């Protein structure tokens, strides 16, 4: 016994220490070799696509300051037409596409989303329609498509209009209290679009945009989008070994739990109701069918229902995408209207003439506001809610200019850059809704305007989003004049969706 205690006090033997040091050195050497060959492969893959000079370890990250991401990307796109290589650290590179010819070639294929970046979303939204690929993606897309049919979308308009009205009533009370203080739009609009998606897609009976539950979920989504964007930027945060032990990693896990708590409650409540109501035909007699009804009744080719994991992944995906992307589109649209009062007034006049004495948009109104629709499209051009989408090549691709990328190469299609490409759009920074007149649209490149992506993996909810933007803008313009806040000019930043580093602050003036 005493000899054992002496050995413990003496510490590890020199030979054991040497063995441990040797093991660590071998592991470090193997990792260095792995990174060396990865770097060689990336340099070989992207040799035909020059880009800005990069640091061996940080890549181009130090050249891109927060809040200046888009300006720098446009600057590089001007110097390297069509596409350029962007290094996210010394051992991770992607091809940034800035031209519709290249976008058309990529969108026309069925390549999967790039796990280089989208993998950071997995703990949050799981393998839903956004991330799935191959036969399972095709199966889920086919199962969910009926949820966006004309007959399903039509009754949603009244629900959207009700959510917008609740937001406008809240705004009216706030400006009565203090009309000298601007309102931050993104928070208000996010609560409204979440309220709307809860009513439309999940048949929620709650209409409160001040409820603690919705506010907690909105805060969790804000944190998650910010943290995912930071993880893409930070070389060390990309490590699965390091990230969980950082403060950001712990914050991410906490926000995931809060988001999942919200969606799990929605699912469990509906399962109980679904059992009581029975078959879809019986449900249709009581209320409108929604997205969650279709998910719960969906069966694959083998007749098996969606697994618990697949069900939650689709709900998490649609709960996020169905409100956050639309909130981005509406918030930036209001900013654009404030900056362009003459177009704001012309939209208002068109809407007043269409609606007469009514203050609520109806389904038949959606096709009767051509100028307002052109303005919405111009807002989506300048401020696309999803500014970048990524793909990982499942097979080599040859572009129109003869340049080739091999299998497994990662491509990021910068919708933001394409929408402001001066070789495609005349005076791209100018707000000009007439770009979307029938005469001018017919002469434009098929992939010059892609706010909802394109091809087989385009946004399944794009009609839902367009409808909601029309409803929101029409009812807002009938009640308020939108004015800019010169002290708070928004700074566009990429956080999965397009957000502003300092919020989107606007003044509102009640109309008689």
From TrEMBL:
Listed InterPro entries: Cyt_P450 (IPR001128), Cyt_P450_E_grp-I (IPR002401), Cyt_P450_sf (IPR036396), Cytochrome_P450_Monoox (IPR050196)
The protein's name: Uncharacterized protein
Family in the record: Belongs to the cytochrome P450 family.
Domain of life of the organism encoding this protein: Eukaryota
Chain sites annotated for binding heme: 459
Residue ranges of coiled coil: none
Source lineage: Eukaryota, Metazoa, Chordata, Craniata, Vertebrata
Species of the source: Anolis carolinensis (Green anole)
Principal location listed in the UniProt entry: endoplasmic reticulum
A Pfam family matched in the record: p450
Keywords, sorted A to Z: Endoplasmic reticulum, Heme, Iron, Membrane, Metal-binding, Monooxygenase, Oxidoreductase, Transmembrane, Transmembrane helix
GO cellular component: endoplasmic reticulum membrane
Keyword Oxidoreductase: yes
UniProt key word rRNA processing: no
Subcellular location: Endoplasmic reticulum membrane
Co-factor(s): heme
Transmembrane annotation, as ranges: 16-37
Any one GO MF annotation of this record: iron ion binding
């Amino acid at each position: 016994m005493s000899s054992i205690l002496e050995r413990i006090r003496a510490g590890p033997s020199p030979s054991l220490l040497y063995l441990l040091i040797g093991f660590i050195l071998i592991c470090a050497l193997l990792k260095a070799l792995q990174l060396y060959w990865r770097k060689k492969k990336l340099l070989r893959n992207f040799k035909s696509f020059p880009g800005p000079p990069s640091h061996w370890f940080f890549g181009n990250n130090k050249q891109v300051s927060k809040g200046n991401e888009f300006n720098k990307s446009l600057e590089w796109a001007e110097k390297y037409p069509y596409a350029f290589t962007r290094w996210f650290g010394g051992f991770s590179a992607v091809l940034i596409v800035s031209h519709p010819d290249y976008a058309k070639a990529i969108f026309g294929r069925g390549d999967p989303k790039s796990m280089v970046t989208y993998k950071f979303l997995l703990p949050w939204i799981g393998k839903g329609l956004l991330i799935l690929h191959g036969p399972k993606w095709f199966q889920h897309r086919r199962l969910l498509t009926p949820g966006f049919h004309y007959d399903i979308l039509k009754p949603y308009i009244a629900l959207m209009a009700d959510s917008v009205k609740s937001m406008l009533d809240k705004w009216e009370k706030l400006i009565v209290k203090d009309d000298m203080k601007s309102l931050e739009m993104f928070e208000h609009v996010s609560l409204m679009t979440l309220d709307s998606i809860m009513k439309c897609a999940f048949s929620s009976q709650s209409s409160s945009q001040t409820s603690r539950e919705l506010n907690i979920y909105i805060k969790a989504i804000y944190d998650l989008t910010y943290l995912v964007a930071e993880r893409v930027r930070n070389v060390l945060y990309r490590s699965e070994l390091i990230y969980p032990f950082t403060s950001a990693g712990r914050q991410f896990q906490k926000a995931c739990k809060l988001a999942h708590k919200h969606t799990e409650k929605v699912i469990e409540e509906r399962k109980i109701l679904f059992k009581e109501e029975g078959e879809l035909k019986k449900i249709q007699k009581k209320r409108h069918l929604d997205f969650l009804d279709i998910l719960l009744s969906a069966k694959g080719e083998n007749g098996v229902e969606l697994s618990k994991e697949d069900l939650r992944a689709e709900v998490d995906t649609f709960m996020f995408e169905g409100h956050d992307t639309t909130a981005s589109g509406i918030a930036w649209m209001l900013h654009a209207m404030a900056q362009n009062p003459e177009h704001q007034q012309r939209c208002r006049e068109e809407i007043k003439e269409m609606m007469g004495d009514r203050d609520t948009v109806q389904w038949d109104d959606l096709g009767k506001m051509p100028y307002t629709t052109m303005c919405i499209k111009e807002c989506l051009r300048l401020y696309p809610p999803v500014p970048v989408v990524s793909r990982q090549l499942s097979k080599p691709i040859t572009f129109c200019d003869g340049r080739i990328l091999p299998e497994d190469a990662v491509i990021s299609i910068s919708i933001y850059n394409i929408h402001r490409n001066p070789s495609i759009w005349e005076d791209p920074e100018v707000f000009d809704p007439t770009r979307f007149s029938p005469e001018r649209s017919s002469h434009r490149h098929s992939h010059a305007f892609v706010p909802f992506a394109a091809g087989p993996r385009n946004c399944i909810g794009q009609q839902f989003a367009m409808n909601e933007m029309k409803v929101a803008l029409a009812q807002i313009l009938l009640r308020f004049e939108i004015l800019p806040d010169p002290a708070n000019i928004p700074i566009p930043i990429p956080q999965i969706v397009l957000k502003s580093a300092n919020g989107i602050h606007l003044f509102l003036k009640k109309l008689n």
